[in-house]
């Protein structure tokens, strides 16, 4: 398992970097759209959709909705100032606060949504759409001035989340004693969370010092810490829905890693939250 995970990671990381830095904006949007449609496909079982045709329709409808949102923005109009993007990003803050309540109160909270297909579908929409909007808003940042600026910001968020996840895993294995959310994800510990935050602070300092990120260090650090906490919540939220659905992995598309949702669950929360804080709330970049 570990071997297949490492091989897959070594293959995927260069692909992600190439997509970030060398795809034109339209190409990047289409790739992100495809990833979002795959995420919608995998959300089907979490929402209680049991047949292949239902999951296909969910994926198609999600893709059409995202495409219409993207096409509704005039050409060369900054995504971060488009009303549809602003509403989606600010809505993500509301959703992840609500998700925090659901996780903290689980399994009692499941009484209200366990048997409701519309609610679970809505939870998926509130997860996938802001993720898509956050990816585009960050990637297009200052695109007309320097096409690589937004790529650096997205790379930063991804490395931040992946680094925090790795730090949490190592600290949890070495020092983990106190369970973070035993009823949702028994493997996570408070010690691991602290380790992830320490790792993310180090990554934030290194990127702020050596990467072309034009932001005040304290603003960057504050938004980064909130984004990392959101990434942990994103992971816990998907774990909660998978536990209710009785499945271990959201899919089997990526060898050794499970499905698309299993790989981007942290990013679905971190990306829109970080984009909203940096672009709309603090206007730090």
Task: Walk me through what this model shows.
With 285 residues, the chain is mainly α. 74% of the residues lie in helices and 3% in strands. It has helices spanning 2-22, 25-46, 52-71, 83-105, 110-113, 117-139, 149-175, 190-210, 217-245, 260-281, and strands at residues 179-181, 185-189. The protein has a two-stranded antiparallel ribbon. The longest helix has 29 residues, at 217-245. The termini are far apart. The mean pLDDT is 91.
| Gross morphology | globular
Gap between N and C termini: 40 Å
**What is the number of beta strands?**
2
Low-pLDDT ranges: none
Helix segment tally: 10
Helix fraction?
Answer: over 70%
Layout of helices and strands, plus pairs?
Blueprint (H helix, E strand, L loop, with lengths): L1 H21 L2 H22 L5 H20 L11 H23 L4 H4 L3 H23 L9 H27 L3 E3 L3 E5 H21 L6 H29 L14 H22 L4
Helix pairs in contact: 2-3, 2-6, 4-6, 4-9, 4-10, 6-7, 6-10, 7-8, 7-9, 7-10, 8-9, 9-10
Summarize the entry for a quick read.
This protein has 285 residues and is mainly α. The chain contains ten helices and two strands. Helix 4 (83-105) packs across helix 10 (260-281) and helix 7 packs across helix 9.
Task: Output the keywords.
single chain; 285 residues; mainly alpha; two-stranded antiparallel ribbon; 10 helices; 74% helix; 3% strand; globular
């Amino acid at each position: 398992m570990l071997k297949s995970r490492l091989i897959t990671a070594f293959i995927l990381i260069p692909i992600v970097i190439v997509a970030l830095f060398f795809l034109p904006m339209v190409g990047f949007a289409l790739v992100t759209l495809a990833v979002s449609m795959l995420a919608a496909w995998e959300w089907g079982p979490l929402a209680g959709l049991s047949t292949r045709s239902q999951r296909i329709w969910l994926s198609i409808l999600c893709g059409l909705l995202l495409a219409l949102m993207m096409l509704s923005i005039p050409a060369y109009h900054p995504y971060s100032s488009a009303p549809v993007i602003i509403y989606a990003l600010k809505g993500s803050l509301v959703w992840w606060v609500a998700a925090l309540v659901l996780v903290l109160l689980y399994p009692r909270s499941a009484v209200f949504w366990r048997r409701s297909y519309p609610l679970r579908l809505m939870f998926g929409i509130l997860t996938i759409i802001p993720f898509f909007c956050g990816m585009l808003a960050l990637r297009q940042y200052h695109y007309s001035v320097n096409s690589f600026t937004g790529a650096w910001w997205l790379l930063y968020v991804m490395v931040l989340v992946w680094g925090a996840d790795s730090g949490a895993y190592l600290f949890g294995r070495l020092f983990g004693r106190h369970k973070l959310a035993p009823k949702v994800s028994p493997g996570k510990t408070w010690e691991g969370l602290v380790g992830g935050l320490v790792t993310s602070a180090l990554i934030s300092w290194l990127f702020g010092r050596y990467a072309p990120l034009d932001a005040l260090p304290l603003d960057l650090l504050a938004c980064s810490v909130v984004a990392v906490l959101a990434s942990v919540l994103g992971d816990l939220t998907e774990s909660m829905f998978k536990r209710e659905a009785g499945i271990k992995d959201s899919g089997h598309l990526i060898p050794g890693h499970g499905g698309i949702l299993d790989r981007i669950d942290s990013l679905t929360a971190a990306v829109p939250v970080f984009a909203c804080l940096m672009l709309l709330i603090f206007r730090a970049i």
